[in-house]
What does this fold into?
Amino acid sequence: MAAAIAGAREVAPDRKLTVVFQPHTYSRTHELFGEFATALSTADKVLLLPIYAAREENTSGVTSEKLVEAINVLGQKAEALPDFTTVIEQIKGSVTEKDLVLVMGAGM
It folds into this structure.
């Protein structure tokens, strides 16, 4: 994820970068929570979808909302959205043709 964001910055250094991310599995999100927050905080804006559970139950209590809080603490704007339809509406309302949108994660 960090490499993809850095690559997008390198290719389009003057463009606003919005990252749409759906974490995959609670265990992976829990284990990589700090790394996810740090990597995502390098985007200009982050839109997070609910964690894709796959086969797991959420035994750690990790959520996309908690990841949003961690990204915001690092000084970047992040928002948790409930579904793909809401993400599309958010992008339509806030992204221009000069911006760059990077979509990553489960279900993308």
